[in-house]
Amino acid sequence: MNVTELARRLKVPTKELLETLPELGFDIGKRAIKVDDRLVDKIIRAWSERKRRASMSEQEAKIKEVKLGDKDEKAADAPVVKIPDTIVVREYAEILQVPVNKLMIELMKNGIMATLNQAIDFETANIIGEDLGFKIERLSAEEKEAAAAVGQDLKLKEIIRQRAATTDRPPVVIVMGHVDHGKTTVLDALRETNVIGSESGGITQHIGAYQVELNGRIITFLDTPGHEAFKAMRSRGSKVADVAVIVVAADDGLQPQTIEVITLCQKENIPFIIAINKVDKETADIDRVKTELAEINLSPEDWGGKTICVPISAKKKENLDSLLEMILLVADVEELKADPEGLAAGTIIETHKDKNEGPVATVLVQTGTLRLGNLVVVGDVTGKIKAIKDEYDKNYDSAPPGKPVKILGLKNTPEVGDVLEVVDDIRLIKQKHKHKHMSSGSTITGASSDDEAEIPTLPLILRTDVVGSQEAIIEALSKLNSDKTRAKIIKKGLGYITDVDIMEAENSGAMLIGFHAKPSKSAEQLARDKKITIHQYEIIYKLLEEVKTELDKIKTQQTTRVELGQIKVLAIFKTAKDHMIVGGEVTKGKVTPNTVVKVVRNGETQDLGKLAELQSSKEIVTEVAAGQQCGLRYNGRPIIEVGDTLEVYQEKTE
Ligand code: GDP
């Protein structure tokens, strides 16, 4: 990128930029014309950090001090964790050493639907971190560089794995080696000889992985041989394979690709087993292979070294059980565990589009249990699991950790290596937004006007390119709030506008805003399908102008609620995720269905919902008057308790 272009982006004169870069640790020369593209992001981040620090006035610093001083002892003892301006959810979980699921649930509670690989900004991370009992601080530019250099994340990953996981899971094995040494034959032979129990004779389908059994123990094989697939997964940051089998033909010995995959495993810290194949051949020379291994410091076990070598004949299906035994031995040393509870997450190992089935993907479940009906997000793709099948096309209701399964129900095909995650709570979030929306644009006759929830509110979903512009917009938006209307950001994020944003905009009725942020291809299509407008801006004042216009609209379009009556809750008959069936007595006025219900406990409003159906003496009725008992279906968050008062309102939009 040209230096002038970068200066323009950073809104700084080119000269000043060039003079300041060395201070930030970027020595590109005072007369440089171009900046290496790989450095651009780093410079932008370092620059905004510098700006942020400079702009943090003394007063703000003082406020922070006071706030910190106010905290109770527990907070003072809280472990301090330093993070950069933005951090990817998965990495954040690793740094905090909490299971990713837990962190995601915490995010969801705050209305943020970030995916595993999405970045959250410092403010969000700070709130979540404090909720989890940490004290979060911002990394300085120098610390950031240092942290990256240490590469501590791998170590942390190991700790997390052990902390969160308690249940044994099958090892996941990848087969690699030089071309023609027999990878495919080994994979086929294993699949045929060690099928799981009842499946023998079943017709297998290629789904990218399969499972075999030895002495009641299961092993998962990725059946796309070759290190390209392996590399693709690594580049997306997911470590899928636990053990590698490196196939070496006994008549050909170590070849360039053999050395390459050995190096790859050593670099990635993946234990490997050498399968010396084709021992049935007359020209086979097992000792030659062992000598060559010893020459590169990989002495075989039977020669006093540490390298496990198993001679096999894939073609004649000989000694394959020994190979499986060795895999299990290695797996035992690794203590492979997973947590089958909670929301599932896994890695996509194969995808394609099927004429009849639509987008098809194979996912290797790595934590939690994947279930039918789960709502999932894979990168930019969303979906609802409609079918879970194994390599025999057998249907399942669920898949535990370590199991590779073919799934149907995705809206689009994701990429191999993408992380799939279940977002089971999306409905709760939708529900929450619905409620917020119900209270927007309304004034309640006879209700206290100081109730913040009663001020007409315009929900917003905001995506920006960088944290700096996000902060500026939030600050400017807060100035538009008045006691008549307010704009409320229900979700904010960096980067592309995603499918989930569109879904949430639809459910919450929020105005979806992109500032220097575009929708992903699938989100664009989804928005078109759902007729959701994406408001894109390049200039802040334009954005503010339009938000103001929307706020004026909701001010004039107010809804009046007239109280019809009140019900005292006497019994709870059913509590579901999004509704309740309760019984009570009408104590005032008369109530009718299709009305708004305010749940009041000890004089305080708890929530708003809808009175969807009314019953009296087991009959569905349209009205129940004071003095009579009734049953009703309440649509909303299931929070009603015996003794609560339900105030029933008729809504009128003017
Ligand atoms: P890949 O390129 O590593 O996947 O190798 P293949 O599995 O396609 O095998 C290459 C060739 O070696 C094929 O012709 C196989 O039939 C043959 N082959 C594989 N395993 C054995 C074995 O154990 N013994 C013999 N004699 N031939 C084998």
What does this structure look like?
- With 654 residues, the chain is an alpha+beta fold.
- It folds into four domains: 170-335, Rossmann fold, CATH 3.40.50.300; 345-439, Elongation Factor Tu (Ef-tu), domain 3; 452-555, 3-Layer(aba) Sandwich (Rossmann fold); 559-653, Translation factors (Elongation Factor Tu (Ef-tu), domain 3).
- Helices cover 34% and strands 31% of the residues.
- The protein has 20 helices and 34 strands.
- The longest helix is centred in the N-terminal third of the chain and has 19 residues, at 37-55.
- Mean pLDDT is 79; it is low at 57-75, 147-163 and 426-453.
- Residues 177, 179-185, 225, 277-278, 280-281, 313-315 line the site of guanosine-5'-diphosphate (GDP).
Can you summarize this structure?
This protein is about 35% helix and about 30% strand. The protein has 20 helices and 34 strands.
What is the number of helices?
Answer: 20
What CATH architecture of the largest domain would you give? 3-Layer(aba) Sandwich
**How many extended strands?**
34
Weakly predicted, low-confidence segments: 57-75, 147-163, 426-453
CATH superfamily of the largest domain: P-loop containing nucleotide triphosphate hydrolases
Descriptive key words:
Rossmann fold, Elongation Factor Tu (Ef-tu), domain 3, six-stranded mixed sheet, 34% helix, alpha+beta, six-stranded antiparallel barrel, single chain, 4 domains, 20 helices, 654 residues
